Amino acid sequence: MRPLLIAGNWKMHFGRAEGLALVDALLAEAASVPAERELLVLPPFTLLAPLAERLRGTRLRLGAQDLHWEAKGAYTGGVSGPMLRDAGCDYVLVGHSERRLHFGDRGEALARKLRAALNSGLRPIYCLGESLAEREEGRTGQVLAGQFDEGLAGLEAAAMRGVTLAYEPVWAIGTGRTATPETAQQAHAGLRARLAAAFGETIARETRILYGGSVKAENAAALLQGPDLDGALVGGASLSAEAFLGIARAPRGAA
Ligand code: 13P
C-alpha cells in the first residue's frame, strides 16, 4: 500500500563521468528491481542537469540534497526550489543530520525549506534522528518529537501528502553500526503515531517513512521486515551500483 522508496544520497561525491557511469549501471539492471518500488538518486547540485538528461523517460527519479527557503534573491551560493524543479528534480532532502551538524540547519529555517520545497512542486524528504548521547540518555522519543514539530508543525494535512520522512539515527550514519530491525521499527512506529496525532489516520497510513544509517544489501531485508519501514535512504552503499541494487532488490519480509 506504501510502495517502497529506495533513495541514494551521494553526499559530496562524484564528478560528471562517475555520476553518469553510476546511473548507467543502475539503469542497465533496474528491471531486476520489483516494478512497484521507486528508485531515487540524490547527487550533488553540479550533477543534476546532466543526470536529468540521462534519466528522462526512465524509472530512476532525481532529487537534490538541500534547497534554499527563498525562490530567488541575493543569497550567494543558494539554490532554490524552482531552480531544482527546472533542473529536473522531483525530490529534495530537508534537515539531513549533516546539514544540521555542519551547516547549522535548524528550527524555523527547516520549516521554511520544507514549505519552499512543497511550493516549488518538489517532494521533500524530511530527515530526523537522535545522536548517540541522546539515545543513551533515553531521550530518543523526545528528540524525534521535537524535530518532527520543528519541521512539520502547522503544515496542512493536504500539504503533508507531499512529504516523506526519513529516520536516520546519527550514530548509525557512516559508522557501519546499523539500528537493529526492532530499534528501527520502534522509532518508525513512534513517528507514525505522531503523524496520526498531528495530521490524522489517513495521512499517517499514507506517509512513507524511510530508514537510513549504514543500510547495506546484507541488512536491508531484515530492516524492511518492519511494517513501518517504507524504504531506505542509503549513503555509502549508494555509491556502488551493485550495492545499491542489492538493497533495492532486497526481499520484503524475509530476514
Ligand atoms: P550511510 O548509509 O553511509 O550510513 O549514510 C546514511 C545517510 O546519511 C543517508 O542520507
UniProtKB/TrEMBL annotation:
Catalytic activity field: D-glyceraldehyde 3-phosphate = dihydroxyacetone phosphate
Keywords: Cytoplasm, Gluconeogenesis, Glycolysis, Isomerase
Main location: cytoplasm
Pathway the protein takes part in: Carbohydrate degradation; glycolysis; D-glyceraldehyde 3-phosphate from glycerone phosphate: step 1/1; Carbohydrate biosynthesis; gluconeogenesis
Matching Gene3D superfamilies: Aldolase class I
CDD domains: TIM (cd00311)
The EC number(s) this enzyme carries: 5.3.1.1
Any one GO molecular-function label of the UniProt entry: triose-phosphate isomerase activity
Locations listed in the record: Cytoplasm
Listed GO CC annotations: cytosol
Alphabetized InterPro entries for the sequence: Aldolase_TIM (IPR013785), TIM_sf (IPR035990), TrioseP_Isoase_bac/euk (IPR022896), Triosephosphate_isomerase (IPR000652), Triosephosphate_isomerase_AS (IPR020861)
Family: Belongs to the triosephosphate isomerase family.
Role: Involved in the gluconeogenesis. Catalyzes stereospecifically the conversion of dihydroxyacetone phosphate (DHAP) to D-glyceraldehyde-3-phosphate (G3P).
Subunit structure: Homodimer.
Name of the molecule in the record: Triosephosphate isomerase
Origin species: Eiseniibacteriota bacterium
Phylogenetic placement of the source organism: Bacteria, Candidatus Eiseniibacteriota
